[in-house]
Write a structure and sequence with these properties.
Elements (H helix, E strand, L loop, with lengths): L7 H28 L3 H4 L14 H7 L4 H32 L6 H10 L7 H10 L17 H12 L3 H9 L4 H12 L1 H17 L2 H7 L8 H15 L8 H4 L5 H32 L6
Helix pairs in contact: 1-14, 3-14, 4-7, 4-10, 4-12, 7-10, 8-9, 10-14, 12-14
Subcellular location: Cell membrane
Keywords: Cell membrane, Membrane, Transmembrane, Transmembrane helix, Transport
Membrane topology: Multi-pass membrane protein
Length: 294
């Protein structure tokens, strides 16, 4: 076979892609370098992708004297797993129902679903509703309000619309019921879009701290990692990174708000970065399959 010649266009394309990679990775590498660099040295500026004076002080500041972090991490993992699983179950069931051509109320339900993407009741009505439902300081406050998302349902329904109807019709002729068709035909064929939406839900659950602040801060057992990190960052900014309760021996001028903020960013981001590579191959497929109808 003849070898393909390396043309000038290939060179330009290679340089362009290298620039894209550098631009994409540089902000994260810079954050990582600052989080591991001495705070006094960081204040000098000019720090790029490698720490000049390596130190664990910023992470010691966060973890030492904060006994709640381990429990908060476990709660964040629990709400992410349970919230993602229940959200996927609810979204796929509704999407499958809306994809059925014989569903009589397809139009009205779809209209109501889309309206929620543009109109919201607001924070105060939502707070009053959750309080009246008895969800304050309850683990279900992390699950029920995020159970259904109109965008996720529409994405899954669009994918299911691309599944040949002959598959479901043949299954019905063989005596399969709707739940059998849903679990044994629709779900296996929809794994790409399910993986994609699962990533959306997992990131949303993992990063959310505001619902803890509003609805669950009175219950220490329900505190999440993001909420605890937010409190640490808030205390650091108010004190100028100088002294906080239980951490004074680790600070002593070795940390500052910027360094603490970067360390918190790394702690909050790494778990999602560890999960994403396993879902990446489904991500683009889930968004593109079913987008073009033959």
């Amino acid at each position: 076979m003849k070898k393909k010649k390396f043309t000038a266009f290939d060179m330009v394309l290679l340089i362009f892609m290298l620039v894209v990679v550098v631009v994409t990775l540089y902000p994260f590498l810079n954050i990582l370098a600052i989080s591991f660099n001495d705070a006094t040295d960081t204040a000098r500026g000019g720090l790029h992708i490698f720490p000049r004076q390596f130190t664990w002080a910023n992470y010691e500041y966060i973890f030492n004297g904060n006994d709640r972090l381990l429990g908060a991490f476990g709660m964040s993992v629990l709400r992410t797993v349970v919230g993602t699983a229940t959200g996927i179950l609810a979204s796929t069931m509704l999407a499958y129902t809306l994809s059925r051509r014989d569903f009589v109320f397809n139009g009205p339900v779809s209209f109501i679903l889309v309206i929620t993407m543009f109109v919201s009741g607001g924070l105060i009505p939502e707070f009053l509703l959750i309080r009246e439902l008895g969800l304050m300081n309850n683990f279900l406050v992390y699950i029920l309000p995020m159970l259904l998302n109109a965008f996720n349902v529409i994405v899954i329904r669009s994918f299911m619309d691309g599944i040949p109807i002959a598959l479901t019709e043949s299954a019905k002729m063989d005596g399969a019921h709707d739940f059998t068709i849903f679990w044994k035909i629709i779900i296996p064929l929809s794994l790409p879009v399910i993986a994609t939406v699962s990533l959306f839900l997992a990131v949303g659950q993992w990063n959310n701290w505001f619902d803890t602040y509003l609805y669950a801060r009175a219950n220490e057992n329900l505190t999440t990692l993001q909420f605890e990190l937010m409190k640490i960052l808030d205390n650091t900014q108010m004190s100028g990174g100088d002294i906080t309760s239980g951490n004074a021996e680790y600070v002593a001028g070795r940390t500052n708000p910027q360094s603490i903020q970067m360390a918190i960013t790394i702690i909050a981001t790494v778990p999602i970065l560890m999960v994403y590579p396993f879902l990446q191959r489904y991500f683009v497929t889930g968004l593109t399959l079913g987008a073009v109808k033959s």
